Amino acid sequence: MPKRVLTGRVTSDKQDKTVTVLIERRVMHPLYKKFIRRSKKYAAHDEENLCREGDMVSIEECRPISKSKSWLVVQRNGETVARPVAYELLENIELPEEQGA
């Protein structure tokens, strides 16, 4: 299953190795047919503390890192952010096949 990738704006960079990203989407009202803006904030992992408030970032869904973080910053202002080596190693691990009894 492909990982979800969302694009939004950094609203807070005060936490260590964590940024808060505001994702906005537009939905049509079912009765009035007017487009309404809906938004949600996600906590994303920023390993090297590169992101600053106001940056446009792309975040990718990943394994849970903490209670509130299960997103990883992959691009900042259009530039690819270096991913931690640990994540690349976890993705490349091949699990042994189970043998039936």
UniProtKB/TrEMBL annotation:
<dbReference type="InterPro" id="IPR000266">
    <property type="entry name" value="Ribosomal_uS17"/>
</dbReference>
<comment type="function">
    <text>One of the primary rRNA binding proteins, it binds specifically to the 5'-end of 16S ribosomal RNA.</text>
</comment>
<comment type="similarity">
    <text>Belongs to the universal ribosomal protein uS17 family.</text>
</comment>
<keyword id="KW-0694">RNA-binding</keyword>
<dbReference type="GO" id="GO:0022627">
    <property type="term" value="C:cytosolic small ribosomal subunit"/>
</dbReference>
<dbReference type="InterPro" id="IPR012340">
    <property type="entry name" value="NA-bd_OB-fold"/>
</dbReference>
<keyword id="KW-0699">rRNA-binding</keyword>
<keyword id="KW-0687">Ribonucleoprotein</keyword>
<comment type="subunit">
    <text>Part of the 30S ribosomal subunit.</text>
</comment>
<dbReference type="GO" id="GO:0003735">
    <property type="term" value="F:structural constituent of ribosome"/>
</dbReference>
<dbReference type="InterPro" id="IPR019984">
    <property type="entry name" value="Ribosomal_uS17_bact/chlr"/>
</dbReference>
<dbReference type="GO" id="GO:0019843">
    <property type="term" value="F:rRNA binding"/>
</dbReference>
<keyword id="KW-0689">Ribosomal protein</keyword>
<dbReference type="InterPro" id="IPR019979">
    <property type="entry name" value="Ribosomal_uS17_CS"/>
</dbReference>
<dbReference type="Pfam" id="PF00366">
    <property type="entry name" value="Ribosomal_S17"/>
</dbReference>
<protein>
    <recommendedName>
        <fullName>Small ribosomal subunit protein uS17</fullName>
    </recommendedName>
</protein>
<dbReference type="GO" id="GO:0006412">
    <property type="term" value="P:translation"/>
</dbReference>
